[in-house]
Amino acid sequence: MSRLLKRHQRAEYIAARAKQTDEHQRCKAPMCTRLTRAAAGDGVGKHHCKMHEQRLMRHGSVTKDSYRAPDLHRYAKRTLEWLQANPSHPAAQEAKAKLDRTLREAGHFESQANVPYMSPAEKARMAWMRIRIKQLEPELVIAKLMAVEAMLKVDPPLSGEAEQYRLWQLGKVVHRMAGGYHRRAVMPGQRHWKFFQSSGLVLKHLGEQAAKVTGTISAG
Ligand SMILES: [Zn+2]
What we know:
mainly alpha; 220 residues; 8 helices; elongated; two-stranded antiparallel ribbon
């Protein structure tokens, strides 16, 4: 009897351990039953499957898509009108000063050919530099960033990924404003658009820098 009991306990223990390991190896995204990249032998990611890891890097959320440009545009328009009507408001002045500093610190132009070999921080710097070269109206840049903050209030992500989603969405707006560049390939007659890579880490850098600009108005 006691031997049987022991055997039973041992079987339960093994089953519990197996279940624990199993859950540990499953993607953390809601409703996802796939193995994590590490468990599937398809990468080093220990939290998500390949699909959700890519979603997280692209949007800053495993479940939520990025904000759509037309939705952001509506809020940007409203903020732009406010900034133009209140140019000497302390919050507007401070945001413009922070943006100006970010753009000045972006440094100088380097060959686009080097971009693929740059670190995410360097790529982020190049994006701000392109915005400076384009001489976009500061009020417009600030308004576009503030549109993200407004959208976060009306259409927020899950609380667990709120900060990452915010940075990524701010980063995407900066990245979009910086735009792509055109270059001719070596082969005659071939041409293609080459964009700054909007990898997750570049978006994170851009988002962190953009958050310093929007933070002054959000708090005000
Ligand atoms: Zn998944």
